[in-house]
Amino acid sequence: MKVLVVEDDLEIQALINYYFTKEGYKVTVASDGLEGLKYLKKDKHELIILDLMLPNLDGINFTKIVKEMEDEYGTPYIIMLTAKTEVEDVLKGLEVGADDYMKKPFDPRELLLRGKKLLNQQEKNKKIRNRFLDLEIDEDKHLVTNNSEEVELSKKEYDLLLLLVKNKGIVVSREKILDKVWGSNYYSGDRTVDVYISKLREKIPFLTECIKTVKGVGYRLEEKR
Fold first, then answer.
1. Phi and psi at residue 147, in whole multiples of 5°?
2. CA gap 18, 10 in Å, rounded
3. What's the CA gap between 23 and 7, in Å, rounded?
4. What's this model's pTM, rounded to 2 decimal places?
5. Which of 98, 104, 107, 201 is the most buried (most CB within 10 A)?
6. Other Cβ atoms within 10 Å of 139 Cβ, number
7. Do 108 and 16 contact (CB within 8 A), yes or no?
8. Residue 214, H or E segment
């Protein structure tokens, strides 16, 4: 799992880096808010340790941007770590989307435990979110199983299935599917999505009744009735 530390105090930065790296996490460090956003956009992280008083972009506005632009920055947990100790500061941080708040000076062992707790919760949520009936998708292993048996899928088939499962019960438009799975490598009127939906139905037969076509819009994954 990846942890992003956005902190302009180099000693604190190094301390957090040491404790989380020691526990096996991959740590990226940034010294200001804009640099942190750049790293986050380049490579999604599961947890952010964030100072509030930062150069170029402060922690409050950093958090607002990340929370409002999930497609761009993912859905990381955020622990604010700051010397600002007024109750109003804590409330403001939580209001804009922070998941936890610690005041400096701090014990790095406590910070590590709080981080672990959030990450463990994320793993539980991910497993629930990536399940549909007997179908399970393990993103870390890039593995799809149906009733515990592995299903061999191409990269695009996997990405399409994952998108549908994460949005089960919701209509996903063809435009969104093309954007998320194929990026810019498609043209208007492309029937690629329909072809790949057919491939999924063929490889995972029970999906034939579960992937509903919404005419003129896209597809919705739902339990058969």
1. 55, 40
2. 12
3. 20
4. 0.63
5. 98
6. 13
7. yes
8. strand 211-214
